Amino acid sequence: MTEDPSVLPPGVTMTLAAIAATGATPRPSGETLAVQRQRIFDGIVQQLSDTTLATQGTWQLAWLGLSPDNANMAYIAKGPSGSSQFAVVVRGTVGNAIDMLEDLDVGTVVPFTVGGPSPVSVSKGAMTAFTQVVNMTDESSEAGAGLVQALTSLLKPAPGATVYVVGHSLGGCIATMLALYLEAQTWNDSPQFAVSTFAAPTAGLKDFANRFNSVKWAVYQGYVNKYDIVPLAWASLDAAKQWYPAPGPVAPPAVKDILIPGIKGLSGPNEYVQPATTLSPLNSDYKTYDPKVLRSSTQDFLAQVAFQHANPTYLKLLNSPAPAPAPVVDKISPRVGVPGTQITITGSGFDWQSTVDFGTVPSVPPNVVSDTQITAIAPDGGVGVVDVRVTNNLGTSPAVPFGQFAYGGPEPVVVTGIVPDSGKLGTSVTINGVGFAGSPTVYFGDRTATATVVSPTQIKATVPLPDPKQPKTVDVRVRVNGYLSPAVPVDEFTHTG
């Protein structure tokens, strides 16, 4: 944390960046862009007013733009009263870390003609996102519809203000371009521009980095988790092949030999360069990690990648509390039924604004019993096995195995744990879960195991001969009545001989 009171601490700017992810995905049953924008607006206002966050409830939303395809969003927030501080906060495409990198379309570079006499090279994907951001409008804003128009109006009564351009992940990538663009505009009120990015891949080549570094920013904060793969894109990706240190997960061959080279190859002949950062990497001792995903498997490696890149992880590394998360569904009961069946949804983050979808079909307004329980009715129109998900102003719950509802049955199959989770050929393994009634088939990776059903919630299986061409760590999955249990971290088994 900086000791200069005129400089925003990174916990504040990272909190502003994390809030940009509010309501990022549309409701599963669909909603208009206007309805989603209002959800985002209300969610951001709710979180900016939270006095427990690093922003201390002192920031106010002044403008919000959402791109027509929902790929990008930006908002302007006014700082504490009397501070003359503003933040232009950018949200990039929402998705997993690998998808984010692919979205940047780095195989092609295009000219960026801002901030100097000659163009510099940025990726086509970054340029597309930047163009969307600078052209987004907020027709409801009293300050003005366009981003620059709104910022101009907001700065009039605050001469000499500092404007922070902020973003996490692809939002941080776009923020570096947007900062150059805003700094190059003509302003009547002499604002200073500062940049605060987190987990940001670079937008362009060496000439872009040089252009960015040539500007005398009021502040430049560039924070990177040492074990986050996204900021390594694309020149330093080979470093990730040696991840993760003890206790893991160690990158398996599929990651080292296929996945990482594949991502690195996206850039073709282009040599991307990060703008200079004067700050030490976060988490250099790897004391912050997800203890649930430590096995040497592609699944665990990618889950750890997602954890290391996440907003809450960066806030934890900066000793700042995370904003309230979107709703989470832990389980539903019953998990089988017909239209009209009442189910109980157990989870967290529920409120009176919560809605429930069965797959892509909306349920009638649910009964919100508490912040951890909802009752809902299975709607007409559902077919097969669907994910039951909850949406409110903060976002939509992710799909989870225990949140699946089967119209007409039978019950979905889920593995909840295995004991032991390692061993050699012939080891007896107890598989716990649900939906095991009937005549299940058990797989260790791609090999079938001899199995005996103890009950609808337990199976005994004998470890088969492993496939020498497959990783030592495999998923133990159960097939019953056409259902194959989803691969989850708790079903992983490691062959030891």
Kindly report the name of the CATH homologous superfamily of the largest domain: Alpha/Beta hydrolase fold, catalytic domain
Tally of individual domains: 3
CATH architecture of the largest domain: 3-Layer(aba) Sandwich
Helical run tally: 10
Mean pLDDT equals: 92
Q: Runs with pLDDT <50, length 5+? A: none
Bulk shape: globular
- The span between the termini is 50 Å
Radius of gyration, in Å, reads: 25 Å
| Strand content range | 25-35%
Number of strands: 27
Q: What's the helical proportion of residues?
A: 10-25%
The helix-and-strand class reads alpha+beta
Q: Outline the biggest β-sheet.
A: 9 strands, mixed
CATH class of the largest domain: Alpha Beta
- CATH topology assignment of the largest domain: Rossmann fold
Describe the protein.
- The chain folds into three domains: 10-317, Rossmann fold; 328-407, Sandwich (Immunoglobulin-like); 414-495, Immunoglobulins (Immunoglobulin-like, Sandwich).
- Helices cover 22% and strands 28% of the residues.
- It is built from ten helices and 27 strands.
- It is globular.
- The mean pLDDT is 92.
In a few lines, what is going on in this structure?
This protein is 22% helix and 28% strand. With 497 residues, it is an alpha+beta fold.
Features:
single chain; 497 residues; alpha+beta; Rossmann fold; Immunoglobulin-like; 3 domains; six-stranded mixed β-sheet; 22% helix
Which secondary structure elements does this structure contain, and how are they paired or packed?
Layout: H1 10-19, H2 33-48, E1 60-66, E2 73-78, E3 85-91, H3 97-103, E4 109-112, E5 120-123, H4 124-135, H5 147-155, E6 162-168, H6 170-184, E7 192-198, H7 206-213, E8 220-223, H8 253-265, H9 298-309, H10 311-317, E9 328-333, E10 336-337, E11 342-348, E12 355-358, E13 361-362, E14 367-370, E15 373-377, E16 385-392, E17 395-396, E18 404-407, E19 414-419, E20 422-423, E21 428-434, E22 441-444, E23 447-455, E24 458-462, E25 473-480, E26 483-484, E27 492-495
Helix pairs in contact: 1-10, 4-6
